Each structure stands twice: as C-alpha cells, then as structure tokens.
C-alpha cells in the first residue's frame, strides 16, 4: 500500500486463490482510494472472531475499510430466531447468525444526491449450523468508484443465498468469498451486472467447499455495452475432505458492442476425489433465433438489446427490500433507461404501492 | 368475403439453397378463420414464417399484402406492429429477460395499447387467470424452464395482450395434453370474441379446430396449395387423410 497525499493505492487486490499469467491482466485490480487520517481516534471494532472470515477482495481492502470506517457495526441474530426485518449492512459490518436462525442482510450504500468519490463496504457474516441467510447486494449508488468486499462462513446445513446487482457507473470492484465449512452447507449465488460507456467491473467470486456433501451453484449474467471492461474471476475450491461435494459455476454475458473488453477466469481447484466441479460459459450477442422471436413481437434490434438492460433493473427493483435501495436503483435506472421507462418500472411492478421499509 | 386483410399472390420462397413454397395464392378476410392443413414437411410452417417476415427465408417472386399495404420487403417488427402475430410451434427461450418486462415492452410499442403500468399489471393478471397461469410466471425468464404447455400459454397471453388483426397459429396444438389444449383453445376463442381478429391456423390435427367456426380450409402438399374448400373439408381430411392430395409434384419439395 503506497501513500500519496490523501490517497493511497490498493495494489493488486481482488485476487483469486490461483492466478494466471500476469500478461493477461486478469488476476487483480489496483485501486486508488481516499486515505483519511484517523490517528488518535478510538473506534469500535468487530469481535476478533470476524478476523477469521475470509473476504472476497482480500486483506488489503479489509484493512483499508477498517481504517476508514467509523465504528464497525455488529449485529447478532439469536439462535432459532427468524428475523423478518432486514439487516442493513453499513461501511464495516459483522453479522453473527446463531444456530437455526434466519436473516436477510442487505448491502448497498445509502442514496446520495451528490456523487461520491468512493463508496465502500466490508461485510462479514458468520452463519452457524442450520441457519438460512439471504444476502442482497446492490451497487448502484452515485459514485466514481465502488469497493465492496464480502465474506461468509457457513456451518453445517447452513443455506446461503446471495443475489448481487452491480449496476453502477464508474468502477465497481467487488469480491465475495463463501466458505462452506460445515457438512451439507449450501450456497446459491446469482450475480447480475451491467457495464456501459467506460465502466469498469472487477468481480471476484470464491467458494471454499470444506465440509462434506456441500453444494455451490454460482450463476453470473450480465450485459456489456459501449467501452465497458469487465473481469470476472470465479473459483470453486473443493478442499481435501469435502467428499461428496458439488460445485457449479455458469456465466452468460451479452456483449452489445465491439469495443467491450470481457474477461472471465473460471477456476475449479480440486483436492478431493469424490467431488464434482462444473463450469460453463455463454458469451456473445443475442442468438439469432432470440432476436427473431423478439422482432416477431414488434421490437427492433436496438429495442431488443435495450430490453435486456430494462430486465436487469426490473429484477433489481423486485429484489430491493428497502425504500432506500429502491431509490438508488431507480435513480440509476433513470440515468440508463430514461425517466419514463424508470417510472414505468416502478408503477408496473407495483412498487409505488409497496410498503416502505 | 370480408375486407381482404392478407393477400398472398404468386409467392415463391425458400432458403438460400432450397425452394420450399411454390406459387402460393392465399387470401384471408378480416375476422375470418382459415385453416391450413397438410402432411408433415409440406411447407405450412414455412408459409407462416414467410408471412411474418423471417429473414431465414427469401421470397423470390410474388407479394404479400397486409391490410392494403405491400409488406413483402418489410422487416418482421414492422409487420408485427402492423398487426400480424405468429404463434410459434416451439417458442424460443430468452434468458435474462423476465416475462413481465418483455410483455410490458412489446405492449408499449403499440400506441393503441398503451396504458398506465397499474392498469397493465391488472390486465395481465386477469389474462393469466383466464389462461390458468400462475402469476409467479411473470417474474421468470421468458420461456426459460417452462413446459411445452406453459410456453403455449405464454403465446396465448401475448395473443390476447397484443390483439393482432391476424394471428397465425403454427401448430399451437402440437405436444399439448388435453388440459393444456383446452386452455389454448379457450385463449383462441377469447381472441376471436374480444378482438374479432382473423386466424390462420396451421395444423394437421383437428382437435384444436373443434371450438372454432372455420371459414375456409386450405391444403398444402410439397410447398403448393393443392386444395381449398369450406369447413367440411376438414371432416373429409379427418376421414380420409392427406393421401387424396398427395400427387407427385414435378418441381420442388417440402420444408
């Protein structure tokens, strides 16, 4: 980490467990971020237990967010409790979900009218045995740069589902590591992203399958247009002892412009005999038969392509659990699709009548 | 005959290397129900796709006139907006696009169908109920992971929503069980009742026609229309099959 006035460079972060040739420029991203001095401040830190949670963007980002955030936020969901109210994760948040409990954790910066330089969040979750944890992550706020690092550990029989929506302009660097430590733990991850104009997306997904009979289903899909640059690193790590485990990763990306840079680095690491790891990818433009079907219903080629972008926002708005997140997604939808379409999204989905949280 | 809605004259069409349709003449009046029957590979579906404007097929000679306008060279989206609807035999899966977003977008393209989002949502809900569709379908990806019957219901939902002047039903009955066929038949009935639109039903099965009042029946064999008659021709085909029409043709072949 090098210091330059009030900014520092987080060099080569968001790295996967196993790297490829450096010349491919796919292994990592270097970010220049603000460095506010907090020398002398006394602040609340998370319990030491959370230091053991591996986060997707790596220790440099963890250290930086911890050093920048005000007090860390610690939330505990008691054993056996089904918490209806979502937990809103702030800058540096640790959530302990005790055995048998269920909780929804929402990650997404608060809406701001003015553009921020950098928005950042660090969220660590410990899901004990027999828990059900829903994680909703939204990156759509008005900032030049977005840094989101998430780490989850899952005990035996834990059910983790994660839905990510990366829709923001500028640079989005996001890492997620899920450690399926307990036997029969399960992860379902859905990641939807949009890159336009000169946006940069750098995504790192790591699933550590340590327990026996664990399951991981990772699905990434997105739309890239303009001069957008995307790098996705997706690693399924079938660790020694994870017998009977299965991990699958599938990405489909729609590329709408010849100037897009789309890099994907899927890796399956395997140190156990009785396991199954699968990877699949579909990269390209809309299939001719799909285009024809849409044209047969009255859409031009450009309108068919725009439909895919609208669909991303539709999905995000349906998933958005709070008024604040909806506001943020809607503001971004307005910038991308125009106010008419954005308002239509909200009214059409009945979200204007929905109870605000 | 009613006002001539669709007029196909001397149409020859096929793929780049294979002629399929030969000298087709077909006229459908507004509000009429026509049935196009024929054995497998006769070229029935090809005719449907050529009328819709599928660029996979090239028209070598002849013309297609719709609602008084020559649309032979028009793109499919223009023909759709003019009022032609083709219900697919095997509806295409479109991952990444929820059904609701899709329905809203194709409806908003038609000025005559524009309505507030709230009314639209209510309208779609009513139609889903009419077609025995679970409303959770609306948030699922278009045709992805649906059964054959469910996909046909989604086609019917679009038919009722878009209210086209002409609906070409390309073997909509294929692969459906009795219950799904009943729902699809109800959808077609509702379309006729609500829109008074014209129908060109492509089939080689007479079950789907039981609830329809058919105006004309056409028989296609090896890319040619070889017979035309009243609704009673369907009973004749049901009793005797297509053999009576299957004379060897001098030129060309089926799809």
Describe this entry's structure for a reader.
The complex is a heterodimer of chains A (357) and B (255). With 357 residues, chain A is an alpha/beta fold. Chain A folds into two domains: 2-285, no CATH class; 287-357. Helix content of chain A is 18%, strand content 43%. Chain A has helices at residues 59-68, 288-296, 301-319, 323-337, 339-348; strands at 2-4, 7-13, 29-34, 73-77, 87-89, 92-97, 102-107, 116-127, 132-139, 143-154, 159-166, 171-180, 186-195, 200-209, 215-224, 229-238, 246-255, 261-270, 276-284. In chain A, the strands form three sheets. Chain A has an eight-stranded parallel β-sheet, with helices on one face. Chain A has an eight-stranded parallel β-sheet with strand order 5-7-9-11-13-15-17-19, with helices on one face. A three-stranded antiparallel β-sheet of chain A has the order 1-2-3, with helices on one face. In chain A, a hairpin with a 2-residue loop joins strand 1 (2-4) and strand 2. Chain A is globular and about 55 Å long. The mean pLDDT of chain A is 90. With 255 residues, chain B is α/β, with parallel strands linked by helices. Chain B has one domain (4-245): P-loop containing nucleotide triphosphate hydrolases (Rossmann fold). In chain B, the strands form three sheets. A six-stranded mixed β-sheet of chain B has the order 6-9-10-3-11-12, sandwiched between helices. Chain B has a four-stranded antiparallel β-sheet with strand order 2-1-4-5, covered by helices on one side. In chain B, a hairpin with a 2-residue loop joins strand 11 and strand 12 (224-229). The longest helix of chain B is centred in the last third of the chain and has 18 residues, at 178-195. The two termini of chain B are 30 Å apart. In chain B, 47% of the residues are buried. Classes of the chains: A alpha/beta (357), B alpha/beta (255). The interface between A and B is medium-sized, with 30 and 38 residues.
């Amino acid at each position: 980490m090098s210091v330059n006035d009030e900014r520092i460079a987080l060099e080569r972060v968001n790295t996967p467990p196993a790297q490829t040739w450096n010349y491919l420029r796919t292994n990592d991203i270097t970010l220049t971020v603000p460095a506010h001095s907090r020398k002398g401040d006394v602040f609340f830190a998370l319990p030491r237990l959370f230091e053991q949670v591996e986060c997707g963007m790596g220790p440099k980002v963890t250290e930086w967010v911890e050093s920048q955030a005000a007090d860390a936020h610690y939330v505990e969901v008691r054993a056996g409790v089904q918490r209806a109210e979502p937990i809103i994760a702030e800058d540096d948040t640790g959530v302990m979900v005790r055995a048998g409990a269920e909780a929804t954790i929402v990650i997404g910066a608060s809406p701001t009218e003015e553009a921020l330089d950098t928005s950042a969040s660090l969220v660590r979750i410990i899901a004990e045995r027999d828990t059900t944890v829903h994680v909703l992550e939204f990156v759509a706020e008005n900032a030049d740069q977005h840094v989101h690092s998430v780490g989850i550990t899952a005990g035996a029989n834990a059910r983790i589902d994660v839905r990510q929506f990366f829709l923001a302009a500028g640079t989005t660097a996001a890492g997620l590591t899920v450690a399926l430590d307990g036997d029969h733990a399960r992860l379902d991850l859905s990641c939807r992203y949009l890159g336009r104009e000169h946006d940069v997306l750098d995504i790192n997904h790591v699933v550590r399958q340590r327990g026996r009979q664990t399951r991981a289903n990772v699905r990434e899909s997105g739309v890239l247009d303009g001069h957008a640059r995307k790098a996705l690193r997706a690693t399924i790590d079938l660790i020694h002892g994870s017998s009977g485990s299965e991990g699958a990763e599938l990405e489909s990306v729609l590329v709408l412009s010849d100037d897009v840079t789309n890099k994907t680095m899927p890796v399956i690491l395997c140190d156990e005999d009785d396991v199954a790891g699968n990877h699949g990818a579909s990269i390209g433009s809309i299939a001719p038969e799909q285009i024809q079907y849409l044209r047969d219903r009255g859409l031009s080629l450009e309108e068919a392509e725009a439909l895919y972008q609208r669909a991303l926002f539709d999905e995000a708005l349906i998933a958005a659990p709070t008024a604040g997140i909806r506001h943020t997604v809607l503001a971004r939808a307005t910038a991308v699709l125009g106010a008419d379409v954005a308002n239509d999204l909200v009214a059409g989905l009945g979200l204007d009548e929905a109870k605000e949280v | 005959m009613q006002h001539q809605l669709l007029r196909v004259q001397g149409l020859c069409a096929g793929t780049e290397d294979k002629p399929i349709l030969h000298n087709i003449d077909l006229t459908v009046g507004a509000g009429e129900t026509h049935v196009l029957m024929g054995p497998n590979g006769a070229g029935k579906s090809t005719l449907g796709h050529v009328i819709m404007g599928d660029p996979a097929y090239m028209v070598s000679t002849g013309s297609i006139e719709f609602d008084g306008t020559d649309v032979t060279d028009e793109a499919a989206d223009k023909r759709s907006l003019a009022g032609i609807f083709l219900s697919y035999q095997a509806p295409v899966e479109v991952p990444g696009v929820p059904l609701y977003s899709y329905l809203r977008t194709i409806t908003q393209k038609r000025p005559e169908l524009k309505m507030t989002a709230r009314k639209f949502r209510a309208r779609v809900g009513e139609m889903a109920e009419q077609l025995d569709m679970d409303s959770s379908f609306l948030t699922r990806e278009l045709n992805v992971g649906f059964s054959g019957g469910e996909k046909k219901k989604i086609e019917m939902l679009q038919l009722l929503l878009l209210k086209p002047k002409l609906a070409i039903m390309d073997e909509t009955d294929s692969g459906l069980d009795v219950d799904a066929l009943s729902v699809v038949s109800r959808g077609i009935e509702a379309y006729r009742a609500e829109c008074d639109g014209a129908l060109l039903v492509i089939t080689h099965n007479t079950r789907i026609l039981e609830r329809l009042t058919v105006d004309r029946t056409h028989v296609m064999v090896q890319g040619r229309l070889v017979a035309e008659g009243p609704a009673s021709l369907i009973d004749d085909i049901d009793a005797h099959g297509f053999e009576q029409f299957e004379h060897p043709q001098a030129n060309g072949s089926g799809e």
